[in-house]
Amino acid sequence: MARPAHIYWVKRIDNSRLVRQRHRERLREAAPLLAVAAICLVVALLCAWQHFRYLDTGYRLEELRAQFEAAREWNRTLRLEQASLRDPMRIDTLARARLGLAVPESGQWVPVGVPVAARPEPIWARRLPATRVSVTD
Predict the structure, then answer these.
(1) Predicted pLDDT of residue 1
(2) CA distances (Å), 101 to each of 67, 97, 107, in order?
(3) Given its phi and psi angles, is residue 108 left (phi above 0), alpha (psi -120 to 50 degrees) or beta?
């Protein structure tokens, strides 16, 4: 069975002089619907903003916790290093090896805060007798 041929005629229509009339009743019907849609859009945007702020705050909180833990670990490392540098045996070894210091003799040091029993009398300045010196040419 053969299909019938379809023929299309082109009809030129000039609609440039037509002006659309506005229906005030339809605008009054659509205004409340547009207002409700705008309110719903604002509420949805506020909820989305709040949710994204919540996520961003969570990420920043985790970042700050990581920084805090890193600072805590660094502080612990510095305290261990400080304790090792303050070790008296290490200081004694460095003083002997690098600076050439020796253990003080018994008479070379005086304990602080202990009264000294036999303190020698101070030597006062004495006036020597005047002598005449003659200068001859």
Answers:
(1) 63
(2) 44, 8, 16
(3) alpha
Cα–Cα distance measured from residue 43 to residue 21, given in angstroms and rounded to the nearest whole number: 34
- pLDDT tens track for 35-81: 999 999 999 999 999 999 999 999 999 999 999 999 999 999 999 99
Which DSSP symbol is given to 11? Answer: -
Distance CA 20, CA 134 (A): 140
Nearest CA among 97, 96, 118 for reference residue 107:
118
Give the integer Cα–Cα distance in Å for 102 and 108.
Answer: 11
For 40-70, the DSSP string reads HHHHHHHHHHHHHHHHHHHHHHHHHHHHHHH
Calculate ∠ Cα 127-128-129, nearest 5°. 120
Count the helices and strands in the chain (H runs, E runs).
2, 0
Q: Taking residues 121-133, what's their average pLDDT?
A: 62
The amino acid occupying position 45 is L
What distance in Å separates the CA atoms of residue 101 and residue 109, rounded to the nearest whole number?
14
Give the residue extent of every domain in the chain: 25-97
Instruction: Enumerate residues 6+ apart whose C-beta is below 8 A from 96.
Output: 102
